[in-house]
Amino acid sequence: MIKHPISPVYDKNSKILILGSFPSVKSREQGFFYGHPQNRFWKVTATVFDEKVPTTVDEKREFLLRNHIAVWDVIGSCDIEGSSDSSIKNVTVNDLNIILKKADIKGIYVNGKTAYRYYQKYTEKLVGREATVLPSTSPANAAWNEERLTEAWKCIREQA
Question: What's the number of CA atoms in the CB half-sphere (13 Å) around residue 31?
Answer without folding.
Answer: 3
